Each structure stands twice: as structure tokens, then as C-alpha cells.
Amino acid sequence: MHKIRNIFHKIEAESKVQKEAPYPWSLEKHYKISKNVLGTGSFGVVKECTDKRTGINYALKIINKTAIQGKEQMLTTELDVLKKVDHPHVVTLHELFETNKAVYIITDLASGGELFYQLLQKGSYTERDAANLVQQVLKGVGYLHDNEIVHRDLKPENLLFSNKTDNPNLMITDFGLSKILRHHNDILMTACGTPGYVAPEVLRQTGHGKPVDIWSVGVIMYTLLCGYTPFWGEDQASLFDNILSGAYYFEDEYWSNISDYAKDLIDKMLTYDADKRITAHEALQHPWFHMAHMADNFDLLNNVRTNFPARTTLKKAINVVQGITRLRRGSVRSREYNTNVNYGLTGIVKHNNVDISDISTLDLQITSMSRNDTFNSNKVLKPTTPSLPTLSSDDSIVIEKDWYSSNKIIPV
What we know:
This protein is globular. It is built from 14 helices and 17 strands. By secondary structure, the protein is α+β, with helices and mostly antiparallel strands.
């Protein structure tokens, strides 16, 4: 009899395993989950799903709790931001589900794909088109800044089109490195971002805030108009050196057909002094957005296709410019160096007593949920003066045991 009872217990246990649903009941009640995988990453997978009540398609991000142990901060931050935002140019959270094993995040689908991938598929592309794209990004950034949110990782890969129609919305996504400011003038100290798009004050670790997003938009705008980034390097250290020099150029070969208004706006967004950098709302008032509609419809697509760097493997991708492009200095429109730049006899560029050769001591870590070209460092540059600030402990989020418990999470 004892053996028979054990057999029945075994059958019952196997039955429960077999009947265990792959998704929470409350999720499947309202959503049909497609087998179509939109993307995969270190922490989970993104699938397409359809709301049974409305027929609208959404993105379903499934995060494995075991996989994200030790890196909960990134997801917690992203959820905090997503719960707070609602704007046409920012990806919006629609519903959130949780089980003991995973978190299920339903957001806008953004089926139009990444910015540059779709741009390169176009038949033609003009300065007017670029102005429309930059304007949408700035509207999204302005909204985030109004809500005291600093994105800190703006780059083309984090700008997605809502759909594949002729005039889709461009939306900002991926808030894993974002920060919600407790007070308007909070100073952030953690070095984070993506090489090539990161602002100099982040690398110098002297404190940063909302202006870092404007610098990134300036890099994106520059790249949208010519296909390569304003700062480059053969390796990560030399790339950082270039950013910290604050010097970039408008080569005549690729910029002669682009308006001075565009170059002026780039200059204002890539202003080295963060306190003097233009804000998102000020940038939206720039005459370029009006004059671009009147500019000559010169097709920029060939230059962009030629210059846009081929992607390397994700672990090595740092979005640098092909060396041959940047060596063409025959005719350049030189940018003035910031007044804080001094050249010593050794040829090392210094800013405010920080030796940029020490930038190589940054401990770059892979932290992006879906890409490996994002870094987040809590190590401080070796200071050359005692005045260099250290990291603030307030820049980290303390993760509680039940780190997803929230009245906005739908019970299962």
C-alpha cells in the first residue's frame, strides 16, 4: 500500500510540472503571446503580444529573476521611469506582471526598428528629414527632463520607430542607466553611458546631470547628417581622449551641402562646458528646424551609407569612425578648443588638472540588457588633485528583498 501511495504522489507531482503554465494566468487572460521573438539578451527575451481586448500589438519583455541577480538596479530603474512617463516620443509601459521566477513588462511595440537601420533602407534622405528626427528626439528628451529624468544612454540603438509607415514616431527607449532626480539640481557621479556618445563631464567624473543627454543628442545629430560620429579613436582609451579634447570637425567633403544652421545647433549641443550647453527646450526653438524645411533638398543618403561604420561583434562595438574617413583632413572646418585645454610638452591633453591618460583606469563593465556596448563604472579616475570628487553612495538604488512589490503589479 505504501508503494502504491508513493506512485500516486509521483504521478501527481509530474502532472503539476506538466500543467505549469509558461506565463501568468492573468497575463494570458488578456494577451495572446506570439512565438515571434523580437530580441534576446543576457537577462531575458522580448516577444510580441496582442491585447485580446483591443487587438493592439505590444512588446512583452520577459526578465528572468535568477539571471538578473546582482544587477537588479538596472531593471528597477527602468521600471521606475516607465511607470512615470507617457509621451509620444518615449516608449510607454502598459502593464506589468510578476511571478516568483520572472517579471513580464508590456510596452509599446516600436515595430519600426532602430533609427539607423530604417534610415539606411530609405530611397532618399535630406537635411529636412534629419531635422524632423532630431526634433522628435528633443521633444522626448525635453519631456524626460521636465519630469526630472536623465536618460544617460541616448544613442541611435535606443531610438526606435513606432511602426514602418512613412511618418512614424521616433521613440526613446532603454532606461536601464537612467536616473530620476530627487531634486532639480542633483549632481550624479556614476560614470555610465556608451563610448562615442558619452559627455566629457561623465568621463571626468566631476558631476553631471541633464546636459549629458543634450551632448548625446548632438552626437546623434552629427551622425545623422554625415554617417560618422564627431569623436573617434582606434581603441576605447583614444576615443575617450578625443571626447575629452572637445575638438571635432566639419569636413567639407561631407558637410559642404549642409546648412550653417545645422552646424550651429551641433556646436551649441556639443558645448564643452555643461553649464553653457543648450537645453532641450532651447534647442527646439533653434532656427534650424524652420530653415531645414527651406534648405536645398540635397540627398545625404549616399554619404551616410558610405560613412556609417560597420558593426563589429557586440562585445567590441564602440561606434567609432573608420580611420580612413577621419584622416581626410585636406579641407576642414576647425572647431576652437575649449579654453580649459592646455597642451604640455609631453603632448598629453589636460582639462582642469585631470590627466586624461588616467581615463584608461575606468573599469568598464557590460551592463546593457540587450547590448554589450554600454558601460557603467563605479571606479573613480586616479585624481591628480585632492579636489576631484568621489562617487556618491546616493547614486545607487538599494534593492529591497521584494524589489518588484508594487500596487501597480497585477497579482497572479
